[in-house]
């Protein structure tokens, strides 16, 4: 396992909420102070988190109103697919390291995907 900075962990949590629609396009994010209080972190750490999310293209800063989720739904869909691909590759690599074959990995995944989702 690799070491991760707290800002990266919080950025991942917020990023997932953006990509799954919990924070819809154009919505205002909680303030830096709110997130810092909720996560028991310094405002500097949360500010770095928001800079990272901005660098990734998920949010933008309005100088007077705070941070907002980008409006571009197509870009969010693209970023969501990129994250899905990354997670899938990571899972496959991890299972391969454990000694599972490609066929076994496929079988394991099929067992955990509900039948109604496999048909779509």
TrEMBL record:
Listed A to Z, the keywords are:
DNA-binding, Transcription, Transcription regulation
Q: List the PROSITE patterns.
A: HTH_GNTR
What the entry lists under SMART domains is as follows:
HTH_GNTR
Q: Which Gene3D superfamilies does the entry mention?
A: Winged helix-like DNA-binding domain superfamily/Winged helix DNA-binding domain
Report the GO molecular function annotations. DNA binding; DNA-binding transcription factor activity
InterPro entries per UniProt: Tscrpt_reg_HTH_GntR, WH-like_DNA-bd_sf, WH_DNA-bd_sf
Residue stretches making up the HTH gntR-type domain: 4-72
Q: Is this entry keyworded Transcription regulation?
A: yes
- This protein's name: DNA-binding transcriptional regulator YhcF, GntR family
């Amino acid at each position: 396992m690799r070491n991760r900075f707290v800002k990266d962990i919080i950025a991942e949590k917020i990023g997932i909420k953006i990509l799954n629609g919990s924070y819809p396009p154009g919505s205002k994010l909680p303030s830096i102070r709110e997130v810092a209080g909720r996560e028991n972190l310094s405002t500097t750490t949360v500010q770095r988190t928001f800079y990272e999310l901005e660098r990734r293209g998920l949010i933008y800063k309005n100088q007077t109103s705070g941070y907002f989720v980008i409006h571009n739904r197509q870009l969010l869909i693209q970023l969501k697919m990129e994250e899905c691909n990354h997670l899938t590759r990571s899972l496959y690599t991890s299972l391969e390291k454990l000694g599972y074959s490609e066929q076994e990995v496929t079988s394991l995944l099929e067992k955990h995907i509900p039948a109604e989702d496999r048909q779509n």
